[in-house]
Amino acid sequence: xxxxxxxxxxxxxxxxxxxxxxxxxxxxxxxxxxxxxxxxxxxxxxxxxxxxxxxxxxxxxxxxxxxxxxxxxxxxxxxxxxxxxxxxxxxxxxxxxxxxxxxxxxxxxxxxxxxxxxxxxxxxxxxxxxxxxxxxxxxxxxxxxxxxxxxxxxxxxxxxxxxxxxxxxxxxxxxxxxxxxxxxxxxxxxxxxxxxxxxxxxxxxxxxxxxxxxxxxxxxxxxxxxxxxxxxxxxxxxxxxxxxxxxxxxxxxxxxxxxxxxxxxxxxxxxxxxxxxxxxxxxxxxxxxxxxxxxxxxxxxxxxxxxxxxxxxxxxxxxxxxxxxxxxxxxxxxxx
Length: 336
What we know:
With 336 residues, the protein is α/β, with parallel strands linked by helices. 37% of the residues lie in helices and 21% in strands. The model has no long low-confidence stretch (mean pLDDT 94).
């Protein structure tokens, strides 16, 4: 059996496949990995395109769009490779991109998941928003990365080229042990899309496994191929899923403390959107807070024990304070 399955989830993405699939084929040694396209019920001619131009690529077709989480869960249930790679259809890979992650998996049995260095496809000197050089959270649930705090994205000057433990690996290019993915139940399908990989990685860290960024592996991510950054539905999913993730992964007492602050922070965010004319985005935050209350009923809050050791990759302070009050704009200025 080959070491890895590189799984590309597709939904009406013929143009993306045409642009990005060639790099995956060129830089993925056939003796190491299989390339698989899991199709989320596309209604364009994606499948015909693949069958005509890439007849040797395995296709897993679904009858409808199950979202990012559901699509990958259904695909990986059919995978037996030791490692699966969740790769967005808008990612260009580079020579040797598999080498370091697969080497680490062989040498480090406690490592469950790995992220490569992710740079911007349209501006290759800079990191890319969704993952950069490895992800973290602050105590209130705000994600950030080595190379990206909020919307401030750093130029890659080799400042984060060391391999390091992280809290979460971006779903744009996520290497994970297949047995651990399945044992954890995969991505939470209640999320549908956005931040589900953060939730999965946080659950993995709580189990005592490690997650790494290996910057010697480099990929380039286009980003925004599904929803634009300011799209109201993206705002809704990000806020709803972030709040749900906190509910699932924080002990009850800590969760109550965090949510007292998040109540004000979320309404301030909604007010700022409202006064800047982004009315639909403001409404999306209010809708997200309402819907998460219904989703919470599907989980047992007592599942998170106070006896669990703290996760060291969670910044114990407010990223908002560091960024807006103290003026810290680079990851190197954050002290855990």
